Amino acid sequence: MNLIILGPQGSGKGTQAKLIAEKFGLTHIASGDLLRAEAESGSEMGKVFEKILASGELVPFDTVLKVIEPVLLKSKGGFILDGTPRDVSQAEYLDSFLTDLKMNIDKVILLDIPREVSLDRLAKRAILEGRSDDTPEAIDERLQLYHNKTVPVIDHYKNQGKLLVVDGTLDIQTIFQDIVSKLN
Ligand code: AP5
Ligand code: MG
Predict the structure, then answer these.
(1) How much is the pLDDT for 133?
(2) Pairwise CA distance, residues 25 & 48, whole Å
(3) How many domains does one find in the chain?
């Protein structure tokens, strides 16, 4: 099974993707985590986009592909993609990339939360984890990009009949049970 998890910043994509990956034996492919790890490694590539990450803007897609494609190609038992695709052109690229490999996306999970919940959760995470993009300015930039660029991706998969919408405001286990029952 190949899945995508979508939702605004702080909606719990990473949190739920981990649980889903464990339950169904999938590879969790989190583009943001892979990019942050590359930046922290101090590599030449990482140095180039470290500032972009901290600003909340999007990293050029060819760079994102360099970190996610090797993991995707190795994920034999299926995957859950978290953080990609971020706009319709990325979704179209992914569709044709998978078609070439005779693979496809089975379902797309959308975690639905309002802006206040994003702001509340990211403010808490900023204290706990200190992610470079959990500053008020970068959070604002990320939420704007989500609304302008990522929201159209929802319709892209809705039109393919793959969208599952989940209330992301509930507690972690309730959301997880809801996703599992919708997938079954
Ligand atoms: P990315 O890492 O994908 O970050 P994001 O989309 O901003 O989302 P977050 O990770 O902030 O939120 P989440 O939904 O995973 O929530 P989480 O589970 O952590 O991307 C980062 C950057 O990388 C981008 O800005 C861009 O620069 C770059 N990038 C990545 N992919 C790219 C691409 N394809 N193209 C271009 N650039 C790309 O939960 C949030 C907090 O809430 C946590 O503290 C958690 O413990 C808590 N929480 C979770 N669920 C609940 C719950 N149900 N109740 C209460 N608290 C909860
Ligand atoms: Mg995340």
Answers:
(1) 97
(2) 34
(3) 1
Identify which of 41, 51, 44, 45 has the alpha carbon closest to the alpha carbon of residue 65: 45
Mean pLDDT of 117-122: 98
Ligand 2 centroid vs 83 CA: distance in angstroms? 7
* Whether the Cβ atoms of residue 81 and residue 150 lie closer than 8 Å to each other: no
8 lines ligand 1 (CB under 6 A): no
- Contact at 8 Å (CB) between 124 and 130? no
Helices (H), 3-150: 13-24, 31-40, 44-55, 61-74, 88-100, 115-129, 136-145
Q: What's residue 149's pLDDT?
A: 98
Rounded distance between C-alpha atoms, residue 147 and residue 97, angstroms? 25
Instruction: Specify whether the CB–CB gap between 157 and 4 falls below 8 A.
Output: yes
> What residues make up the domain containing 29?
2-183
What CATH number is given to the structural domain containing 103? 3.40.50.300
User: pTM surpassing 0.85?
Assistant: yes
Using alpha carbons, list the distances in angstroms from residue 138 to 33, 52, 92. 17, 10, 27
CB distance 28 to ligand 1 below 6 Å: no
Residue 179's contacts (CB-CB under 8 Å, 6 or more residues apart) are 16, 20, 109, 164, 166
80/6 Cα distance (integer angstroms) = 10
Any residues with CB less than 8 A from the CB of 25 and at least 6 apart, and which?
Answer: 77, 78
